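REVIEWER CHECKLIST
Item 1: Sequence provided? yes
Item 2: Single chain? yes
Item 3: Sequence as submitted:
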Amino acid sequence: MRDITLLGIIVAIAGYALIHPWVGIMGWTWLSLMNPHTLSWNLRFMPVAALMAAATLVGLLITRDRRSFYVTAETGALIVFMLWMSITLIFAIYYEWSTYMWTRVMKIDFMILMATVVLYSRRHIHVLAWVVAGSIGIYGFKGGLFTLATGGNYLVWGPPGTYIEGNNELALAMILVIPLIYFLYLIHEHKWLKRGLLAWMLLCTVAALGSHSRGALLAIAAMGSVLWWRSPGKLRSGLLIFFIGLVALFFMPEKWMERMTSIGEYKTDASALGRINAWWMAWNLASDRLLGGGFEIYTPDIFAKYAPNPLDLHQAHSIYFQVLGEHGFIGLFLFLLMWGLVWRQAGKLRKDGKLRPETQWISHLGAMCQVSLAGYAVGGAFLSLAYFDLPYNILLLVVLARRWLNRKGWEEEDARGNVLPKFARRS
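Item 4: Structure as written out by the authors:
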């Protein structure tokens, strides 16, 4: 029954995407982030994401809705990075293995670019923020309750076969959506909705801590610092962050505290030493090959040639060394350039949005996107999530918000964010 219900929802969204492709973008985002089909018995083997993408692209061709491709420095950097990954694929050490991962990455990035074609209104941006937050936040809601119920003695895991299957990866994903939930809290006035959003943030924090991820703790610390600095009311937000952290830590067991305090003991930690070994492998490989090794380079042969300890095989466990080893120093430069541009643009949104009452929500969005990026920059230093969808959706939100601000979207829309006919717009 669950599979039938889920399939019906997916088919309905895909069908509506033929008329309004922006709905298909939301459906794709939901499927790619939450991966609800992987939690079913039969749909996990069906190409439901491909169905959603195909319906969206067909709708893009036949729809009468507004369509316009908007190139910015951020999307331009993404396109160049995509082209560079395509070049490194040609010279990949393991071409056949790399092709699968390249296809997966290109699908994600291509849909991000397609989203810039059909998403343009304030309503679209707000719905996208809800979809992104909800798709990951559902695991924070469930995981937070599970952690509280079990006293934090068991790990919180993500959907199988996805980027966020592991406890560490899921923890970072939940951390990254906390600022988006706070953004939703800031733009809504309903008292009970705001209380629910605060509770949701608390549960996501508890779930992230319940993953027993040391990288997640560092990401929370970094993100909490930026969140406090970027929040409009520093005293209120500071007290809120302190309260959430205090409540979350209260429920953590002693073994969690022991694991977190071992962060500084990397010289005797096998996991930390394995990461460092993989980082040196990536550095040596990139130094030897201008184009890097391509995708799927974590094999005994590669470690035997480039790693200090050839017997200690690990994934990159770092977005930076992952890109460095797979696409060389040029690829790493493009990767850092792209996120640096997104960070700068989010900061501009935070400042420019304050200039008018109608654009205050833009300021909140820019500030919270910067908070998410801070968490990604710190937490991602210890995880192989360079191509994970969620940060690229942050990029998308920033680009869409800038376009809305540049075209003075408040003059074209009503109070609910719906686009008005031309004769009813404000001049």
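Item 5: Key structural point noted by reviewer: Residues 279 and 321 are 6 Å apart (CA to CA).
Item 6: Recommendation: ____
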